């Protein structure tokens, strides 16, 4: 299992949510209580991130992040990339 793909995906989600919120890394740091250097490292996937850090960032961004152990979605893992898949809310 390539865990680095998971951290890359997580970093991309954080960066995307931060950008969508119109925040700089510095502003996100102040809002979340997470250090500026940590945010930079997380967004570049250069750091194994604690769950508590992810939760702080997600709360500050008012978003949900998805952690995929191998960087693939459930659909990709099960061979269904057709757009039809599992209804996890059912």
Instruction: Please tally the helical runs, counting DSSP H or I stretches of 4 or more residues.
Output: 5
Uncertain stretches of 5 or more adjacent residues: 80-90
Which CATH class of the domain at 3-64?
Mainly Alpha
Helix content range of the residues, please?
40-55%
Please count the beta strands (DSSP E, at least 2 residues each).
0
Largest sheet: none
What would you say this structure looks like, in words?
- This protein has 90 residues and is mostly helical.
- It has a domain at 3-64: lambda repressor-like DNA-binding domains (434 Repressor (Amino-terminal Domain), Orthogonal Bundle), CATH 1.10.260.
- The protein is built from five helices and no strands.
- The protein has helices at residues 3-20, 25-32, 36-43, 51-61, 74-77.
- Mean pLDDT is 81; it is low at 80-90.
Short description:
The protein is an all-alpha fold and 90 residues long. It has helices spanning 3-20, 25-32, 36-43, 51-61, 74-77.
Q: What are the main properties of this structure?
A:
single chain, about 90 residues, 5 helices, mainly alpha, disordered C terminus, 434 Repressor (Amino-terminal Domain), globular
